[in-house]
Amino acid sequence: MRQTGPACRICRREEKKLFLKGERCLKAKCAIDRERPIPGMHQKRKAKLSGYGEQLRAKQQIRRSYGLGERQFRKVFGIAAGKKGITSFNLLVLLEFRLDNIVYRSGLSLSRALARQMVTHGHIKVNGRRVNIPSYTLKAGDVISIKASNKSTAMTAKNIEVTATTNKIPEWISFDKESSKVQIVRLPEPGEIQAPADEQLVVELYSK
């Protein structure tokens, strides 16, 4: 089940900025910057997490950051575990290569939630064909573009303007600002994907 409650509450629960609210996360109103307490937690001292607790929090932070439900996240992990190579890195690559994530990473959207909405509403094309599935897995060489309509163009232009000074596009993504086209140049190298938590803890959690 996907989290549908207030996004700022999720960040407060994880005690970490997960950038779920787009532009709001960059302003003084951010709950993390204001040091708001964990929801429902009023004691002065916080109990130290056990090994399992650390693994669970890492999984929740990564899952919530990418906007996936528990069942969907476990399914992605299963695919990552079945691939050759390092499972933790495979997991991050699969999450990063989701269409909604690439739309967000490129600066076409202010958050992954808004990117998911752009995809489902038909504003995004992949290799010239409209794709409305946020979880669609991209591959190296794929080109993402915006639907040719005044609404789509105006919306993405505004988003690009906002993210121009704050968004750092990964080196494995090429973005043409003039045409608003995004291309997956290559597969990322280990260490190029910055996860909100230690992805190896997720592997340890699911390997029990």
Walk me through the topology.
Elements (H helix, E strand, L loop, with lengths): L6 H8 L36 H16 L3 H13 L4 H10 L2 H7 L6 H9 L3 E3 L2 E2 L12 E4 L3 H14 L9 E4 L4 E4 L14 H8 L2
Antiparallel strand pairs: 1-2, 1-3, 3-5, 4-5
Helix pairs in contact: 2-8, 3-4, 4-8, 5-6
Name its key features:
single chain, 208 residues, alpha+beta, Ribosomal Protein S4 Delta 41, Chain A, domain 1, Structural Genomics Hypothetical 15.5 Kd Protein In mrcA-pckA Intergenic Region, Chain A, 2 domains, 8% strand
Q: What can you tell me about this protein's structure?
A:
The protein is α+β, with helices and mostly antiparallel strands. It has two domains: 7-94 and 194-206, Orthogonal Bundle (Ribosomal Protein S4 Delta 41, Chain A, domain 1), CATH 1.10.1050; 96-184, RNA-binding S4 domain (Structural Genomics Hypothetical 15.5 Kd Protein In mrcA-pckA Intergenic Region, Chain A), CATH 3.10.290. It has eight helices and five strands; from the N terminus they run H-H-H-H-H-H-E-E-E-H-E-E-H. The chain has a five-stranded antiparallel β-sheet with strand order 2-1-3-5-4.
